[in-house]
Amino acid sequence: MDMRVAVVGAGGVGGYFGGRLAAAGGDVMLVARGRHLEAIRANGLSIRGAAGDVTVPPGAVVPSVDAVGRADVVLVAVKLWDTEDVARQLRPLAESGAAVVSLQNGVETREALRRHLPEESLLGGVCYVSAVIEQPGVVVHRGGFQKLVFGEYDGRRSERVVELAAQWAGAGPEAEVSTDITRMIWEKFVFLVGLSAATTAVRQPIGVVRGDAGSRALLLDVMRETVAVGRARGVALDPSFADERLAFCDTLPPDMAASMHHDLTHGNRLELPWLSGAVARLGAELGVPTPRNSTVADILSPYVQGAPATAG
């Protein structure tokens, strides 16, 4: 049976995965806002990329969580600073039985969501994709990978996670169930923090970063520190996982960069406090040194709220 899936935050990630499912005939409602919402209402949501171009009709978008009506699953794909506000809005849906899955960056979203939502409504989620809003109403997919992973936090292979993963069969993205979703979230976090820190601080895509000895060392050290923090928190990360991720970085398209790099170059707000900033903060709490992440957080600090005003 098809689930009714609501996607809160139809930007690069939410627009891509929700749009692919909707284009394949899935029962999907996309929640968007601002100029992106207006453009989708006028012309539908266009998704472009190596996996093929599709257009989602305007009727699949709504302006708010209240307008969703009913949902079996809610995918949360808003920027991290909006998590608490969205969680409050989702409470009626969660209390009516909807499962809530965060596809956001970071490793602290479960704690943020559980402050406002029933614990039993929460599922873990991880996504792998490079997709951004190129212009209002248009999401561009860069690179070839497109994958979703879902899981119960207690490791059960429940009926709802199996059914959720099955929704994307035939829609394009790969989807699977994990029995250790917390580790999966941290494994993505290690890679994401490294890619975000290095490409944003250097202001260059991964091809340049990995090809220079100094920036390559920065990338590896940032990931090693993140692994150390995760292990100190009890996550079963392999001690050599950062080196494995560096090898993975060598396989990426040379023009690939993190979404934080895109946000910096476009003068947008940054998720830095939940990425390198979070590694530095958690490291301080746990007594784990994080000099590279702390330095990246300091270097990029003036840009956290967007392009800084020019000093007079």
From TrEMBL:
Q: Which UniProt keywords apply?
A: NADP, Oxidoreductase, Pantothenate biosynthesis
In its UniProt record, a GO molecular function of this protein is: 2-dehydropantoate 2-reductase activity
Q: What is its EC number?
A: 1.1.1.169
Q: Which residues are in the Ketopantoate reductase C-terminal domain?
A: 180-301
Annotated metabolic or biological route of this protein: Cofactor biosynthesis; (R)-pantothenate biosynthesis; (R)-pantoate from 3-methyl-2-oxobutanoate: step 2/2
Provide the Ketopantoate reductase N-terminal domain boundaries. Answer: 5-154
Q: Which reaction does it catalyse?
A: (R)-pantoate + NADP(+) = 2-dehydropantoate + NADPH + H(+)
Its annotated function is as follows: Catalyzes the NADPH-dependent reduction of ketopantoate into pantoic acid.
Similarity remark? Belongs to the ketopantoate reductase family.
Please give the name of this protein: 2-dehydropantoate 2-reductase
Q: Which source organism does the UniProt entry give?
A: Actinacidiphila polyblastidii
